[in-house]
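REQUEST FORM: STRUCTURE PREDICTION
Request ID: SP-0412
Submitted by: Lab K.M.
Chain count: 1
Length (residues): 358
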Amino acid sequence: LLYLIVLDISGFTAASFTALTFAILPYNMFYGRVILPEPMLVFFSILTLYTYMRHIQTGKLVWWLLSLLSLIFALLLKPTALTILLPMWGYAYAKHHLSLGNFLYFLALPILAIVPYFLWRRHIAAYPAGIPASSWLFNGNGIRFKGAWFRWLFGERIGKLILGYWGLVPLAFGALKLGQKKTETLVYGGFALGSLAYLAIISTGNVQHDYYQIQIMPTLSILVGVGCGYIIALKKGWHKLFTSFFIISILTLSLALSWYEIRGYFWINNQAMVEAGRQLDTIAPTNALVIAPYQGDTAFLFQTKRRGWPLGGNIEDKIKKGADYYITTIRDAEYNLLKSKYTLIEETDEYSIIKLTD
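STATUS: Completed
RESULT:
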């Protein structure tokens, strides 16, 4: 979809590099496979823009309805999908003159799309226990626009983790190209402005969670792709051959350094947890409830093939709620206390299993 969008606006070279960047960046390869709302949010957001562009090009109602449907899905996943409205507006403005009628026509899409979101919010409000705290995501620690905010988002995340330093070169050229062509400026500028607004508004969430930057990957990929196309187009003849080699070298270095930073993300199996889960599976009934502390991460609990809690603490309360086993790979104060009070089933150098009930 990104390829088709950029192909329509900037041509084959920029579109090819955009698609290539989006497809092979190690950060995107990892987070494109995770079970989180963000990957599908990106898909439906880009689908919204593409179908809206097709509607403007053809005038067919079916494309408008598809755009409405995809925007509904995107907003139900996360309301931050509203940032896609900026490049949509940019494309509409580039193709049609600005008038009150056109503006109201454009507003009809997001207004209709947001109705299901508000209906869902009204429904889920009746079940507050299922609503995670979210107000802290905006600026809970007061980091917005502080030095640390710039360092973490633009230095550590975008520059280092995602683009591997060298990817900043074509990104800068892509940003410099804005202003040369009306449609590129309005659409890609809309992407960039939406991404910056997202990073600024959800400031604490973006700093504390690296996966939050999944939503800005289309923007980064487009600017890198357009930048690569811009560099190649600067020279002709032997100079063009040199610039092509230059681009390949930059992208290779970018991928290599990004992979160096991201490779640990793919090492998802902690062998001690795997062994502990396998052993518990031979001991505990399938309906047993398990406490598997791992700082709230359910990866350890997943290895047990049981339901339960991914956090320790309040053990007595958890026992009242049906907890049968406590499994751990560390020897902390909580473990030593439980070991003295309850039945130690198994203890190895790698893990321990405690039975909490008679």
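NOTES: The chain has two domains: 2-262, 271-355.
Reviewed by: T.R.
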